[in-house]
Design goal:
Elements (H helix, E strand, L loop, with lengths): L2 E2 L2 H9 L3 E2 L13 E3 L1 E8 L10 H5 L3 E6 L4 E3 L4 E11 L4 E7 L1 H4 L3 E7 L7 E2 L4 E10 L4 E3 L6 E7 L7 H10 L3 E2 L12 E4 L8 E6 L6 E2 L8 H4 E5 L4 E4 L5 E9 L5 E6 L9 E2 L4 E2 L9 E8 L5 E4 L3 E9 L38
Parallel strand pairs: 12-17
Antiparallel strand pairs: 1-13, 2-7, 3-13, 4-5, 4-7, 6-12, 7-11, 8-10, 8-13, 9-11, 14-20, 15-26, 16-18, 16-20, 19-25, 20-24, 21-23, 21-26, 22-24
Length: 363
């Protein structure tokens, strides 16, 4: 059937050698996506690029500043650009295509990363029947970060034949039978060109956002629950149910409503929409089936403006989630059983930080 592939499909693709990796671990397979892993082959490069008329390695030769071996940890400096060959290689059948997105933890650290493949004129795109290597361009924006081979920064979602997106009429109908958004009021208003996600800024005495500090120690990407929040983040409190998003600063906020992805669906957050403001929200877009079960989870929002300071008010729409059908109901869902990090989250930083959720947050 048409639609996004499930956990069982990815396992079969590995068995059939359509996905290959000398470092494959079954934990890489998520309910409707696949975690990709860094190899040891890395290059610092002069500038970003695409490779629509050649293989990536052929074009890369003239852009290399230096080669880096990621068998040992290496510190990626802020605002320098690197490209890393991934361990995974594809030999897809002609009816399968896909695209990539940063993982949640990657987005929450303001790591700007984009997938590049041979003979493609678009970032993040895996063309139908693609055969070849995958590369990841990485630029850390807020922190110096140590990476090494095996780290997982991005995800791949594959689709059979075509996407099977749900329109607003379908979403409203599904929400009545198998609730996907939880809020006190205006439920149907929130479904417009997908599920509208708004920002929560209405508790005056609580931390409502975090802003990345300018001068911080390096983050070790492989170390979980280790780094102290105060070393890296400034807590933000709301004034008059609003905050100012300052130019070139990176913020973590959370949604006002709780969202849910039923087991037969997958979701993707649209990261930038000029119709709702000149800022980027949510760098990491994939939501797997089972996210938010049973009563919804808040969406964490990564927000940055590059042009002008921006006044953000409580309840203001900040992003949209589009839903699509899987090609079958997933046999594995997001949650504790597969050690998912962000189920039933509130205002939560990435998993790298100690006690990184506001325990006394009034939901």
């Amino acid at each position: 059937m048409n639609g996004s592939l499930t956990h069982k499909d990815y396992k079969k693709l590995f068995d059939d050698k359509q996905i290959q990796s000398i470092k494959f671990n079954i934990d890489q397979i998520q309910p409707s996506s696949l975690d990709l892993t860094l190899s040891n082959e890395c290059y610092e490069i002069k500038y970003s690029f695409l490779s629509p008329k050649s293989k990536v390695m052929s074009k890369l030769k003239n852009l290399i500043i230096r080669k880096i071996n990621l068998n040992k940890k290496f510190k990626f400096k802020k605002n320098k650009t690197y490209i890393v060959k991934l361990n995974e290689k594809l030999t897809l059948n002609k009816n399968i295509f896909g695209h990539c997105n940063p993982k949640s933890s990657t987005g929450r650290l303001d790591i700007f990363c984009r997938t590049i493949v041979d003979y493609s004129d678009e970032y993040e795109k895996i063309p139908k029947g693609y055969k070849g290597d995958i590369f990841l361009e990485v630029t850390t924006r807020s922190f110096d970060i140590k990476f090494q081979a095996g780290d997982k920064l991005n995800q791949l979602r594959l689709v059979y034949e075509k996407h099977n997106y749900l329109d607003d009429k379908d979403l409203i109908s599904i929400n009545k039978q198998d609730q996907i958004v939880f809020d006190e009021k205006n439920i149907n208003f929130k479904i417009e060109n997908g599920l509208k996600v708004s920002v929560y800024l209405s508790s005056p005495n609580k931390v409502l956002a975090y802003c990345a500090k300018s001068n911080t120690p390096a983050i070790d990407f492989s170390k979980i629950n280790l780094h102290k929040i105060n070393d890296y983040w400034k807590p933000i409190y709301s004034k008059n149910k609003s905050i100012i998003i300052e130019k070139n600063k990176f913020y973590i906020l959370r949604s006002k409503e709780r969202v849910r992805i039923p087991p037969k669906l997958a979701g993707e957050m649209i990261p930038y929409d000029t119709g709702i403001g000149d800022f980027r929200a949510h760098y990491a877009g994939f939501f797997d089936p089972g996210f938010g079960d049973p009563n919804g989870s808040y969406a964490v929002l990564e927000v940055k403006t590059n042009e002008l300071p921006f006044l953000l008010e409580d309840g203001q729409t900040i992003a949209r989630i589009k839903y699509e059908k899987l090609n079958k109901k997933s046999n594995i869902v997001y949650g504790l059983d597969i050690k998912s990090n962000y189920q039933n989250q509130g205002l939560k930083l990435s998993k790298h930080f100690i006690n990184n959720e506001e325990e006394n947050f009034n939901y």
